[in-house]
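A common beginner's mistake is to predict each chain separately and then try to dock the pieces by hand. The better habit, illustrated here, is to supply every component at once so that their relative placement is modeled jointly.
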Amino acid sequence: MDMKTRIPARSGKTASRVIDGEAVIVLLDKQETIVLSDVGSRIWEIMDGKKDIGEISGAIISEFDATHEEALKDITEFVEDMVQRGAVEVK
Amino acid sequence: MKRELKIEVANHVVGLNIDEERHPSFIKDVLGAYNMFISGAEPTISVDVELTGDAPPEYFPSSRLIFENNTIAIEDDCLLGSLDLKKKRGRIKLNPVNPLYPLGTFLRNVYTFLVVLEDKGVALHAVGVLEEEEAHVFIGPSTAGKSTVASLSPGKVILSDDLILAKKVNGEFKVFPTPAWGDRQTGPRRNRPYRIKNLFKLIKDKTVYLEKFSPAYALANIFTVPHIPAELIPEDELLTTFSELLSAVPCYGMHFLPEPSFWRHIEGLKPEIEFSKRES
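With all components supplied together, the output reads:
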């Protein structure tokens, strides 16, 4: 399946806050916390369970001056990492 | 004939009803141990206390905290208790071998419930040290060095080296002394709120330095869910409380060795130290 059309969503087993542009995610089951980079924090903010990776990359390209390929790669890696940690689910 | 002992912590008064004829020496012990916290105010929670061999033994393997029908049931070493949060009434059975210890466990839980659930405050595993009537709060789990910090702070007032209860008082986060549930409480404390000057996350290291945490990194480091039944405490609400605390109070990682030079670093703190960002 084309990654661009996959829709990532925050897991219900997380609680989060974005403070001064940095996202803190609490994994409720594990009682672990994750602090995201500025790009990761922005992806987390945009990721509403409705936008697909292609749409999220559009926002990242314009805000972080990245190429389409770079943004897609970064977002895909981010989503895969977050899925592995249990913070994100992908539809 | 029951005697009511009123114990006030963090502005909450718990009334303990104890049979005066059967347990005069226990009443004397409670008055001694909680001397600074005895209150004249009306209790908001009333608890019937019984000393009985029905209570669990000294090393009870299955400590539990269960919430059902507005009531929290507590089973722990030497303690069988329940607290009805709606009726504000409780009952506890204490093993008579050393009843002050399970009473402390029960009260520690009760005041944590009250501060976190009713006052939207926080309960931290921390040592609080007073300096010029303001509190430095050193946070860390067991073996992080809390007792070490307390023992390396001679001449200073230790609010608690175990549990710190903090909540907003007149819009400002303050900490409260707690009874002697930890090992060390020293100096002329008073039962009143103290302004929090700094928060420090304890990090054992080979050198001593302070690392200013960004609010997000601080939140990730000090956020802890208190020992409260999960149904009662929405983590999202708790995150908001911690975020508010960290917006108001500077937080540092305190890399330290078991020697007192960390105090020199704390005394030299300047507000303009750069944030350190760590990312994943």
